[in-house]
Amino acid sequence: MEIGFYSPNIEESKVEAVNLRGIKFSNSKGEVIDLGDLKGKVVFLNFWATWCPPCRAEFPSINKLYTQFKNDPNVVFIFVDADGDLTKANKFMLNKKFELPVYKVESNVPEQIFTGSLPTTLIFDKQGRISFKHEGIANYSDEKFGEFLNKLIVAN
Can you give the residue ranges of the Thioredoxin domain (predicted)? Predict the structure, then answer.
């Protein structure tokens, strides 16, 4: 399955304030990320599952975006396996040759952030505000999306 039938509309995204303190995710090494600790960074947060066809279809574009920004210290990528099965999720990434950092939920996640629809992608600006939210499949390797991330990176 390929994508290309939906490019995320970043112009219509509204900035929305959320209290991110205490929203936590952990990886297979036991490292915990608290979204509240990431102020000053742009955060790309994606909820997905290995069994989700739209999630699987958008991963090549997400991996391309991740590869473009992974070395930027101002950007953090968090890919949350909705099933919380890090072993299965990491095996999936390895088999598909994706480099995406996989996490599971370690706290309550407000519905303002995730209602259960897969995939769901959010971008938080450096102030911790939701600058982009999309439920469903999208092409994140689109040039306009990269430009959008760059604008958030250079903004104060």
Answer: 1-154
- Residues contacting 136, CB < 8 A, separation 6+: 6, 54, 117, 119
* pTM for the predicted model, two decimal places: 0.91
Nearest to residue 106, comparing CAs of 49, 18, 31?
31
Q: Where are any strands of DSSP class E within the chain?
A: 24-26, 32-34, 42-48, 75-81, 102-105, 120-124, 130-135
Quick one: 1-6+17-61+75-97+118-156 is in which CATH superfamily? Answer: Glutaredoxin (3.40.30.10)
Residue linked to tokens 């999208």 = 138
State the residue for tokens 């092409």.
139
SS3 percent helix, strand, coil of the chain, rounded to 5, is: 30, 25, 50
Q: Tell me: the pLDDT tens digits for 72-81?
A: 999 999 999 9
Are the C-beta atoms of residues 143 and 32 closer than 8 Å to each other?
no
